[in-house]
Amino acid sequence: MAAVAQSADAGLDNQILADVQNKALNKSQYKDVKATVQNGIVNLTGTVDVYSQKEDLDKRVHRIKNIKGVENEVEVAGPEIPDAQLQDKLIKAIQYDRVGYSSGSLRIQDVTPFNAIGVRVQNGVVTLGGHAYGPVDADSAVAVASNMKGVKDVINEIQVDPVSPNDDRIRIAVYRAVYGFPSLNKYAIDPGKPIRISVQNGNVTLYGVVINQGDKDAAGIRANSVPGVFKVTNNLQVAGAPEKQ
């Protein structure tokens, strides 16, 4: 009976392996990935070019019938890019990622000023933090990082701001107060909107980089002038000044 059971298990493992090869590894980007199956556990090894391919493969394999688990040991090959260089590339890519995208709930043409997503890179591992206006914006930032060559892994710590009509009113009012101020209007020219406005339950935080201390102070004062704002935290950085830890 034991031999029969072992034979049945081996037959099921072989079927799972065939399904993995035909349904999950049947794309050119997975040509350097190998799969083995033992007792229903799929083990993946080899390399892919970008982290998003590793994630996608994991999802594809999990959809295979009869598997008990997946051990994904696939490594991201890609180019070795210094952390500082990779971080700068990601910051710029994410800053401009959602330019021109609107939100029906916010009723404004571009939600870019209301995403304040931070990036840290260590040994090729990217950690995304900060605040996103909505889940689509957060997912989009993760996708940017996952598809950039040189990224070995992505840790998503982005907080999605709660849905609130009152916060939306404050967002728009602060945006107009800040970007409409004569000395700050120059920042509106940049489609990436370097002054970012994050709002949670009436509390406003300003992120980004401005040219001088006067512009930072003016932005804080303008945000504080908006009715309904409970508190303003001014985290704007002045270009060239050492970043506060």
UniProtKB/TrEMBL annotation:
Pfam families reported in the protein's UniProt record: BON (PF04972)
Domain spans labelled BON: 8-78, 87-162, 166-240
Xref: InterPro entries: BON_dom, Lipoprotein_DolP
Protein name: BON domain-containing protein
Organism: Alloacidobacterium dinghuense
